[in-house]
Design a protein that fits this description.
The protein contains three helices and two strands. The chain is an alpha+beta fold. The chain has two domains: 64 residues, Nucleoside Triphosphate Pyrophosphohydrolase; 39 residues, no CATH class. The chain is globular, with a radius of gyration of 15 Å. 0% of the residues are buried.
């Protein structure tokens, strides 16, 4: 976050900078707390549900982007595999057969 910026202002700015979309609507989802991979620092992730306007166009600094399905092997930090994704599944917002593929 930049100095003097609220979470929502930061969210809107980052979405505009990174994928060139405008945030039409935001709904707070949940805040999750955990540790980094090496357990050296605490980590806090505040999640929002957003409705976007515009076509997703990644910024030049983004090397690759893609939609993934449940069969894709993806290495994520524990806060995602142990907290965020299970909460999204529990609330019926995403469907995922197993989290073991996420942790491989």
């Amino acid at each position: 976050m930049e100095s003097g910026e609220t979470e929502l202002e930061c969210l809107q700015r980052e979405i505009k900078e990174e994928i060139n979309c405008t945030v039409k609507k935001t709904t707070p989802f949940q805040t999750f707390e955990g540790r980094t991979h090496d357990n050296a620092q605490s980590l806090r992730v505040t999640c929002y549900l957003v409705e976007l306007e515009g076509e997703i166009t990644p910024a030049n600094e983004i090397e690759e982007h893609k939609w993934i399905d449940k069969n894709h092997k993806l290495k994520l930090t524990p806060i995602f595999t142990e907290q965020i994704i299970p909460e999204l599944i529990k609330k019926g917002m995403i469907k995922w057969q197993t989290l073991t593929k996420l942790q491989e």
